[in-house]
Amino acid sequence: MKKKRLELLNLTLSQSQSGAYTLVLGEADGKRRLPIIIGNFEAQAIIIELENMTPNRPLTHDLFKNFAMSFEINIDEVVIYKLHEGIFFSKLICSNQEKQIEIDARTSDAVAMAVRFNCPIYTYEAILAQAGVLFEEESAPSESKPVKEKKAGTRQSKDKDITSLSTDELQELLQRAIEDEAYEKASQIRDELNKRKKSS
To answer: Would you say residue 54 has pLDDT above 60?
Structure first.
């Protein structure tokens, strides 16, 4: 299966889960976005590295990096290889001078390590097709430094159960969510639309 490269685009507070963040990965050569809910600790670990902050003492991910480098182990790439019941599964592809091995990891930890080792992040087309949110070019944000915490878009949809909306209303709501860069909301709407397609 051919891998698709992803870029780290954004990290924002989750609108649906208190204390959680939405990590947004984007298709490097396309318009799809992959929103992933991660914990506060992992979000902070990613932000600290991207903003070149130096904590007083090494964080867990820094300790892992220091340990690996001390034994000449490198992380060559991160692969998000499975999506099951809304959970993304990832692995670290590691190597030393003798061999290459794969280590299973939570996606949030895998991304935190990817930014520390400056290695690429990949997934497969099947995962992007299932969980990706299409971002239309005319509403795409301009290129900027990735991962700045920001507030959700100004246009807020009414807190209405999306299952009670018609398919046309859902399509319209999906477009608004994409324009507002509300990827988490867009992924929920996309899941509901996919559910209806399967049942029809």
So the answer is: yes
How far is residue 101 from each of residues 91, 92, 96, 113, measured CA to CA in Å? 10, 8, 9, 16
Looking at domain 3-151, which of 3.40.1370.10, 3.40.50.720, 1.20.1250.20, 3.10.690.10 is its CATH number? 3.10.690.10
Q: Tell me what the mean pLDDT of segment 93-98 comes to.
A: 93
pLDDT band at 136 (very low <50, low <70, confident <90, very high): low
